[in-house]
Design goal:
alpha+beta, Alpha-Beta Plaits, 2 domains, 9-stranded mixed beta sheet, 9 strands, globular
């Protein structure tokens, strides 16, 4: 019996999982899908039947990621996308939103994406001082282009740290700087969170632009500008040349309420609200 490769897109709440990649004895997004496909629906016997486009750390929210599974061709022909969404959607936890599914070429890989977009909500960081928009535009631009990002990642032996950032620009809501949006084909581990910490340091004067440029332009000299929290990071979208992106309007993001001693806890709830509103808009398109 032939196999059909099915690409599916999904989002999830980052604080409900210990990251996206499967790990023993802790809940992960990949593990949740594997449990459904192998144990619940019994669609596969492969050891690791699910591959995903982007790995995310614990706490990182995801608006739109992608993965695939190979299932019996006759099964797919019988149920199609609507049957797939219904069967899988009823089994996965509520912390995962299954967006859509389609058959793709047998050699299709979610890792070969055109671009990935992340958004980091800097206004929720301790020490955030909102700069002028013009200054922030210029500071974001420091992180565009092709560079060796060795000082802006968790280094992994034998892996290149050379990457191209297509765009880095302010993320705003009602004229207020919320954070930044960064786009590239691929990123090295922790790159966006380290860029966020470097931008914060420029904004509050802890580091100069020159120091950040030194870290960027001298990768052979280890310069640690710090790692920001995962809580404020959202994998916003992943795009492929044969799968159109899903566009949706941005909802108004409330200003952090600093009158509360637990203002960051309120911000963490707002992060989920951002996702919930996006899931409502995205799922309404299908």
């Amino acid at each position: 019996m032939g196999k059909a490769r099915i690409a599916f897109r999904f989002g999830h709440y980052g604080d409900c999982f210990h990251g996206s990649q499967v790990q023993p004895d802790v809940p992960t997004v990949q593990g949740a899908f594997m449990h459904v496909f192998k144990k619940k629906l019994k669609w596969t016997n492969e050891r690791i039947p699910v591959a995903m486009a982007s790995r995310t750390d614990s706490g990182v929210h995801v608006r739109l990621n992608g993965g695939y599974i190979d299932i019996d061709e006759n099964r797919w022909n019988a149920m199609g996308e609507s049957g797939f969404i219904k069967a899988v959607g009823h089994q996965i936890p509520d912390s995962i939103a299954l967006i859509d599914a389609r058959r793709v070429a047998d050699d299709w890989s979610p890792r070969r994406a055109l671009r990935r977009t992340y958004r980091y909500r800097m206004e929720c960081m301790e020490g955030w001082v909102e700069p002028s928009l013009d200054d922030f535009i210029n500071w974001c631009a420091l992180f565009e282009g092709e560079h060796d990002w060795a000082n802006f990642c968790r280094r992994e032996p034998g892996r290149t740290t050379q990457r191209v950032v297509e765009s880095c620009r302010p993320w705003t809501s009602e004229g207020r700087i919320v954070g930044f949006e960064i786009i590239g084909e691929a990123f090295v581990w922790n790159q966006v969170r380290r860029i966020a910490n470097a931008l914060l340091a420029i904004c509050n004067g802890y580091h100069s632009v020159e120091r950040v440029l030194e870290a960027r332009d001298t990768p052979g000299v280890e310069i640690d500008l710090g790692l920001s929290e995962p809580d404020w990071l959202i994998l916003w979208s992943v795009e492929w040349d044969d799968i159109l992106d899903i566009e949706s309007e941005d909802a108004i993001i409330p200003l952090p309420d600093h009158s509360s001693r637990r203002w960051q806890d309120l911000c963490r709830q707002q992060q989920k609200e951002i996702l919930i509103r996006q899931f409502d808009l995205i799922e309404g398109k299908y």
